[in-house]
Design a protein that fits this description.
The protein is α/β, with parallel strands linked by helices and 316 residues long. It has three domains: 13-91 and 276-298, Rossmann fold, CATH 3.40.50.10800; 95-178, Rossmann fold (3-Layer(aba) Sandwich); 182-260, Rossmann fold (3-Layer(aba) Sandwich). It is 41% helix and 14% strand. The chain has helices spanning 13-24, 36-39, 48-56, 69-78, 94-97, 101-109, 124-127, 139-143, 157-167, 187-196, 210-213, 222-231, 244-252, 281-290, 299-315, and strands spanning 26-31, 44-46, 62-66, 84-85, 115-119, 132-134, 151-154, 173-174, 201-204, 218-219, 237-240, 258-260. The strands form three sheets. The chain has a four-stranded parallel beta sheet with strand order 2-1-3-4, sandwiched between helices. Helix 7 (124-127) links the parallel strand 5 (115-119) and strand 6. The longest helix has 17 residues, at 299-315. The protein binds 1,3-dihydroxyacetonephosphate and iron/sulfur cluster. The site of 1,3-dihydroxyacetonephosphate (13P) has 11 residues, from loops.
Amino acid sequence: MPQDTVLPRPADLEEAILELKREKGAVVLAHFYQESEVQDLADVVGDSLALARAAQQIDCEMIVFCGVHFMAETAAILNPGIPVVVPDMAAGCSLADGCPPEAFKSFVAEHPGAKVLTYINASAGVKAMSDLICTSSNAVKMVAEFEGEDLIFAPDRHLARWVARETGRDDLIVWQGACIVHELFSAKGLAKLKIQHPDAEVLAHPECDQAVLDQADFIASTTGIIARAVASPNRPSIVATEDGVFHAIRKQVPEKELYQAPGMDESCECNRCPYMRLNTLEKLYDCLKNEGPRVVVPEELAKQALVPIERMLSLS
Ligand code: 13P
Ligand code: SF4
């Protein structure tokens, strides 16, 4: 059967998905930026690092990755013998797409001798050219591996700027990419919201613009933000993050006062990643049933990309 076949779907999709998972020996990994209903059906919900770790330790017949393409690629690289399927092959990432392997190859060649540290939000082709991978939760630690060496940091310029400040490495050679979700929070809107909720703590991702980070009390990856919000159930939080993260916080502290940091344009849903949101419950059912679409990384490329990914996991 073709992998993208749309089948008649049962009325109780949740139950049908659970049944298919059992039948196929499938494990569903989901990022915190997924719709709440998708998160609730996953076996593991996590940030980029936690999902890479889970993929490294997995034992199953099939991995269903509810996230974006580079995450599924990472799971496939870590598990050459296990099929990795995704609900929607079009769920890419503006940041990863903004750093095409050919252009990155030329960029690296312009800096002979420099080592390459790459944020996990990059294609397998870019990872294969890297010495080490990092996520936002371990980037500072990974930079320390390159003391005294010229270092390229790609592809997120905001994360690079934050890491440079935290580590004192103001000589990083930076690929000038950005994420359309993290970059689009409005510093002005945030300032207004802070005035309305003066007792709130502001939590933000390091991939946000500096004008937003300047107003933040706490800067961390998705998991760090969730843990921080949960740790103070009685204090309001204003959070500059993707909408899906609110579900994960509310599951643990339902009564907590939570405010979403506003986007640049009040009419847009800037804080919802349009790629992550392509994955729906219906498509999750279809991909389990069809066992596809499948993410395949060419063998040689996968071998090269595995080295810096495993190095990160062993250092984390
Ligand atoms: P983390 O999962 O590392 O917090 O990164 C967020 C993100 O941008 C996922 O695409
Ligand atoms: Fe890419 Fe940004 Fe979406 Fe993450 S939130 S998948 S970095 S576009």
